Every structure is written in structure tokens, then in C-alpha cells.
Amino acid sequence: MFRIGQGFDVHAFAEDRPLIIGGITIPHTKGLIGHSDADVLLHTVTDAALGAIGKVDIGTHFPDTDEAFKDADSAVLLEKVWGMVKEEGYRLGNIDCTIIAQRPKMAPHIGDIRQRVAELLEADLSQVNVKATTTERLGFPGREEGIAAMATILLMKNE
Ligand SMILES: Nc1ccn([C@@H]2O[C@H](COP(=O)(O)O)[C@@H](O)[C@H]2O)c(=O)n1
Ligand SMILES: C[C@@]1(CO)OP(=O)(O)OP(=O)(O)OC[C@H]1O
């Protein structure tokens, strides 16, 4: 049995914030703002996993009106959702992620991010792909107002 899910998220840049993407803190002049640590990639992965098991989205499970999730570590939120995935009997088939950012250059960090996503999804590195693209200076990522991320996930279970 297979289930497919997709995720998409955007967070705006703000001064004096760390830039955390895929659980990795990336040196940059500014970071992303959110109710949580604003890890745009882990939110996207979380939404993709929730979509695949038909459980709506991250904001439904972890509302941004709840003080409990203020400055939350997005890795912890993903771990909770991955527990739900496993309760349904699924494991990762594969996931493909795209980070949409004009800057910073993600290439030096892609290996670490991929490793962290694989750990969180209890999967082999070969099941996880992470890539980055600019928007050729067009739109909000191009103006460096924020970063977007997208992911497609395939879950599997033996039946
Ligand atoms: N923030 C980014 C964006 C892109 N890359 C890498 O550069 C390649 C070319 O990007 P284009 O948007 O011009 O197609 C892309 O394939 C990535 O390897 C990056 O490291 N960080
Ligand atoms: C993660 C949560 C909860 O802290 O907050 P944000 O960091 O604002 O992230 P978002 O992707 O807007 O939605 C999910 C939220 O409920």
C-alpha cells in the first residue's frame, strides 16, 4: 500500500533571527520568523507526511495561537507527526524536497540537511533528496523577503 503527500510552506525573513533549515543552523545575515523556530523545510516535510496519511496539516495539530508551540523546535513537531505515520503502519518510501531561496547558497549545507531529514524520518540517506533553487531574483524569494520549500513524500506499508 502506498500513500503520497505534498507539502509547501513559506516564512518571511527578519533581522536578529537564526536561519534554521532542515534542522541545521545556517550562517546568514538574517533568519526566518514564525511562531515556532520557523524551519520552513521541516514544516514542509511535516505537512507532506500529514497529507500522505490524510491528517490535514501542521497548523491543525500545532496551532500558532497555542503558547505551547511558541519557539517550538520543528524537529520535535516532525517527530510527533512521524509517530502518527508509524502508528498507521507506514514507513518512508522516499521524499524529494526543494528549498526556494535566492540566498544564502544552500549547496554547502545540503548534505547535513539531508542527513537530518533522514534521521527524523528514520530512513536511509538514499531515500531522501534535498535540493535548492533560486527564482532568478523574481518574486518574494528573489527579493530575499523570505524562503519557500516544497516536498513530495511517498509512504509505504506491507499489507
Ligand atoms: N539558495 C540556493 C539556490 C540554488 N543553489 C544551487 O544553485 C543551482 C542553480 O540555481 P538556479 O536557481 O540558478 O537554477 C541549484 O541547482 C543549486 O544547486 C543553492 O545552492 N542555493
Ligand atoms: C509551526 C507553527 C506552530 O508553532 O507555527 P509557525 O512557526 O508560525 O509555522 P507555520 O508554518 O506558519 O504553521 C504551523 C504553526 O502552527
From TrEMBL:
Free-text cofactor note: Binds 1 divalent metal cation per subunit.
Gene Ontology terms, MF aspect: 2-C-methyl-D-erythritol 2,4-cyclodiphosphate synthase activity; metal ion binding
Pathway the protein contributes to: Isoprenoid biosynthesis; isopentenyl diphosphate biosynthesis via DXP pathway; isopentenyl diphosphate from 1-deoxy-D-xylulose 5-phosphate: step 4/6
Cofactors required: a divalent metal cation
InterPro entries hit by this protein: MECDP_synthase, MECDP_synthase_CS, MECDP_synthase_sf
Role description: Involved in the biosynthesis of isopentenyl diphosphate (IPP) and dimethylallyl diphosphate (DMAPP), two major building blocks of isoprenoid compounds. Catalyzes the conversion of 4-diphosphocytidyl-2-C-methyl-D-erythritol 2-phosphate (CDP-ME2P) to 2-C-methyl-D-erythritol 2,4-cyclodiphosphate (ME-CPP) with a corresponding release of cytidine 5-monophosphate (CMP).
Site feature Transition state stabilizer, where: H35, T134
Binding site for 4-CDP-2-C-methyl-D-erythritol 2-phosphate: 9-11, 35-36, 57-59, 62-66, 101-107, 133-136, 140, 143
Protein family: Belongs to the IspF family.
Enzymatic reactions: 4-CDP-2-C-methyl-D-erythritol 2-phosphate = 2-C-methyl-D-erythritol 2,4-cyclic diphosphate + CMP
Species this protein is from: Sporosarcina newyorkensis 2681
Database matches in HAMAP family: IspF
Keyword flag Lyase: yes
2-C-methyl-D-erythritol 2,4-cyclodiphosphate synthase domain sequence ranges: 2-155
Enzyme Commission number(s) from the entry: 4.6.1.12
Keywords assigned by UniProt, alphabetized: Isoprene biosynthesis, Lyase, Metal-binding
Pfam families, sorted: YgbB (PF02542)
Protein's GO biological process: isopentenyl diphosphate biosynthetic process, methylerythritol 4-phosphate pathway; terpenoid biosynthetic process
Entries under PROSITE patterns matching the protein: ISPF
Quaternary structure annotation from Swiss-Prot or TrEMBL: Homotrimer.
Origin organism lineage: Bacteria, Bacillati, Bacillota, Bacilli, Bacillales
Amino-acid positions noted as binding a divalent metal cation in the UniProt annotation, renumbered to this chain: D9, H11, H43
Record's protein name: 2-C-methyl-D-erythritol 2,4-cyclodiphosphate synthase
